[in-house]
Task: structure prediction
Amino acid sequence: IAFPDLCAISIIRLRKAVKECREITWSRRMKIVIEKMEQNLKFISQKRQSVDFQPTDIDDCLSFSKSFHNKKEKSPLVTYAEQREQKMKFLSITNVGDEEEEEFEEEDEGEVFEMKKTKQGKKKEKKEAEKKKEK
Result:
């Protein structure tokens, strides 16, 4: 319930940090986080207007907060966090058991994700390149 009131300062400070930062990948990621926070702010503000209880009613406040974690009505920030978590799990699964890794970046829907190319992937690419040369 208090998210719109509390996140205003965070958004302002994040914007300032993005302007001052010279690291492009970090800036891109923070811009996406800021955008999702603003979407979440609007979403919760709209839902908050339709409530008929007071902030002192703790049980009602908790049920209001929990309602955004169900599958029907997820807040934009919860949805974004779940998507990021799934992508990170996928990336960690694909890299299990590899000792030597090379980092590279892939842009996906305006986001930059760090991905790792495995040692096995490098060997496979070399073999394919050699086959093409032989032909």
Notes: The two ends are 65 Å apart (CA to CA). DSSP finds five helices and two strands in the chain.
